Amino acid sequence: MFPLVLRLPRCTVLLLVLLELALAQYEHLGYPPGYPDPEVPEQYTAPQLAPDTPRIQLRLAGDKRKHNEGRVEVFYNGEWGTVCDDDFNLHAAQVVCRELGYLEAVSWTPSAKYGKGDGPIWFDNLHCSGKERTLALCPSNGIGVSDCKHTEDVGVVCSDKRIPGFKFVNTLPNHIENLDIQVEDVRIRAILSSYRKRIPVTEGYVEVKDGGKWKQICNSEWNQLNSRVICGMFGFPGERKYNARVYKMFARRRKPTYWDYSVNCTGNEAHLSSCKLGQATAVKSNETCSGGLPVVVSCVPGRAFAPTSMTGFRKAFRQEQPLVRLRGGAIVGEGRVEVLKNGEWGTICDDHWSLLSATVVCRELGFGTAKEALSGGRLGQGMGPVHMNEVQCSGFEKSITECFFNKEALGCSHEEDAAVRCNVPAMGFQESLRLSGGRNPYEGRVEVLMERNGSLVWGTVCSDGWGTMEAMVVCRQLGLGFASNAFQETWYWPGEVSADAVVMSGVRCSGTEMSLSHCLHHGDHLTCAKGGGRNAAGVSCSETAPDLVLNPQVVEQTTYMEDRPMFMLQCAYEENCLSSTSNQAPANSYRRLLRFSSQIHNNGQSDFRPKAGRHSWVWHDCHRHYHSMEVFTIYDLFSLNGTKVAEGHKASFCLEDSECDEGIEKRYECANFGEQGITVGCWDTYRHDIDCQWIDITELKPGDYIFQIIINPNYEVPESDYSNNIMKCRCRYDGHRVWMYSCHNGGSLSTETEQTFPGLLNNQVTHR
C-alpha cells in the first residue's frame, strides 16, 4: 500500500507543509490568559524518598499578605527554622511550593521581607534544579550548616493553583501538632435539599480534597473557631448553629469517608492552610469516627449576599458599616481601605499592613476573610488625610477602628495607601453571561442566558443606550476588572450564530450592580429597533482604570472675579462659554466672570485617554490646539436650596500632562497634534487666565451659593471611581468681591456633612 501522501495532489501536499510551518512559528507564544490549555494537567504522585533522606516539613510563615506566600520555614529535628537567601533562586522556590502542594512558584524574596524568623537556619547556599521532590534533596552546605543571620531569611510566593491529586504525606508522625494543613482543595457541600438549591451555599459538610478524593472531617475535635475560618474562606463574615439531628439521620443512611486528620484553628486565620493539623482521626471498623459525625458548618452571609423573601438578592451593593468603606476596586469586595474620622474620610498607611488586619476590614463590611492585603497604593491613591498607620489587629475586632495603631506616626503619603481583596460568596453570576467573538477573553459581544418560553437560551443585548455603566457591570460580573470601552456595534466580533437574537433590552445600570440582570431592563417586553447580531452590545475590559480627582485647594486659592469687555470674548462666545443673556449684549458691554484654576490629578492605575481617536479631534482656532473631548468638565453655581443660578459651562479641553510626581515622566502634550491624555501620577492644570475657565455671573445677585465642578460628566471615559469626580465649595458674593471656601471632593466627607451642600452628592448624573 502506498503512503497517503503519495495519493494527494502535489499542490495539496505543498499546502499542508506550508500550513505546518506557519503554525510552528506561533507555538512558542502559547495560549492567552483565560483560554484552556490543551495539555492534560499533571497528576500528583507522592515522593518516594530514600531511607537516608532527612525528613522535613515546610510551611509559609511571617507577615503574609496572601495565604500562599511567606517566609520559608523548615521543621527538622523537632524544631522550626528558616532558609538563608544566599544562592536561593526560582528553582529552589519551585521545590518549596511544589512540596507544599502548589502548582508552581511565582517569585521569591530575600532579606526577611516577611519578617525575621526564629530558631536555626537549616539551609544555606541551596542549589536546586527545580526537579527535587523535597528541599532536603537539594545540594547545600548541609542541614544546619550556615553563616547567615535571620535578616537573610528567604520568602516565596506560590501560585494560587494546587497540584491536582495532591496528597499530604506526614513524614513526622510524632510532631503532628507542629504542622500546617496541606490539602488539594476544600469545599462546603450542601447536603439537605433545602440548601442544595440555594445560592450561595451557606450550610453543609466541610470536605477536603486529598489524593484526588473528597473526604469529610470527623467532628469529635471540631469547634466554633474552625467553623469561623471555613465560613470566612467562602466569603461569609460569621457562623451559626444548625439542626444537628437532621445530619445525624443523613450520616446513618450514607457512610462518610473520613480524612485522616482533625483541624486545629485559632479562629483568626484567613485560610485553612494557616491552621494547624490536629490529631489523627480514629476511625472505627464501621467507618464512623470515634464519638462523632462529619463536620457541618452553617454560615451567615453578609447583607449584600443574603436572599430576602421580597426582592431576592439585594440588587446593588451597599456598605454595612458607616465607618469603613472600600474604594477603587473593580469587583465587589476589593478596594482601597478608607475610614471615617471626625467627619472626614481618609486612608490607612500600609506600614505593618497584614492579612490579619485586612480580614478585620473584610468581615466588618460583610465579606469573609481577606484573600490579599495590598500595599503601595495598588488599588489607586486616596485623598484627604491618612488616618491610621502601623495598624495591628488580633483578628477578632468588630471594626478596624478598634485595632491598635500608632497615633504618633507621621510621614505616610497616599503612595502607601493600604487595600484589600476579600473572599466573597460564589454567587454563580458569571455562568449567565459571556463574551463571544473577541480576540482575547477580555473583549467581545455580550451574550446573556435568559429564560424564554420556559427554557434557558443564550442571546444578545440590545445596544440602544448601551454605555460605560452597563459595560462596567458586565466586566465586574465576569471578574475581568473595569470596562475600557462600551460598543454599540459588534459586527467585527462574530459571536455564536445561535445567540444572535436579542434577549435583553432597555438595560440601564447605576454601575454598582453585581450582575447585568440586576440592572433595569425591559424584562419580557423586548424592544430593540436595531436588532441583535451585528448591532448587539459589546465590551472590552481592563484590569486597571484611571481615576481623576480635582484638587480643591487650588480652586480655593485661585478664585477671583473679573469684568471683561465683550469684544475680548469673541472666542468664548463662539464656544458657548457665556450665559445665554450675552446674545443681546453690545460689544462695548462687560461680562462679570468668576475665574479659577483647575488642577486635575490622575490617581488611578492607568492613563486617562480620550475615547475619540485622533481622526475625530476638533481643531479650535481660539485655543490653537485640538480638543479630544467634547465635554470634559461642567461648572455650576447653585443657591443654598439647590436651584441652579448660573449656567454651567460645558468645557471641551485638550488633555495633557502639566506636571508630574517625582520620578514620573510626562507623556502627553497638546502642541503639534501630540498625543492627549493624563498619565498616572500626573495632573493637567487649566489656569484661571485661559478662555472658558470661568462661570459667567453677570446677572448673579449678591448672596451665598454652592459652586460645583464635575469632571468627565458623561462617563465618556471609564474610571475606577466616579464618586470623587465632583467638587463643591461654598461661595460668597457681595456684588464687588467673591470668596470660595470649604472646597472638597465628592465622597470625602461624612453623609451628614455632605447633605449640607446642595447639588449632586456624587457624579451619578444622566446625559443620555
TrEMBL record:
- Enzyme Commission numbers on file: 1.4.3.13
What function is annotated for this protein? Mediates the post-translational oxidative deamination of lysine residues on target proteins leading to the formation of deaminated lysine (allysine).
Provide one Gene Ontology biological process annotation: chromatin organization
As one GO molecular function, the record gives: protein-lysine 6-oxidase activity
Its required cofactor(s), as named, are:
Cu cation
Q: Which Gene3D superfamilies match?
A: SRCR-like domain
Spell out the disulfide connections. Answer: 84-148, 97-158, 128-138, 265-275, 393-403, 509-519
Compartments in which it is found = Chromosome; Endoplasmic reticulum; Nucleus; Secreted, Extracellular space, Extracellular matrix, Basement membrane
Post-translational modification remark: The lysine tyrosylquinone cross-link (LTQ) is generated by condensation of the epsilon-amino group of a lysine with a topaquinone produced by oxidation of tyrosine.
Catalysed reaction, written as an equation: L-lysyl-[protein] + O2 + H2O = (S)-2-amino-6-oxohexanoyl-[protein] + H2O2 + NH4(+)
**Main localisation:** nucleus
Concerning Pfam families, the annotation shows: Lysyl_oxidase, SRCR
Q: What is this protein called?
A: Lysyl oxidase homolog
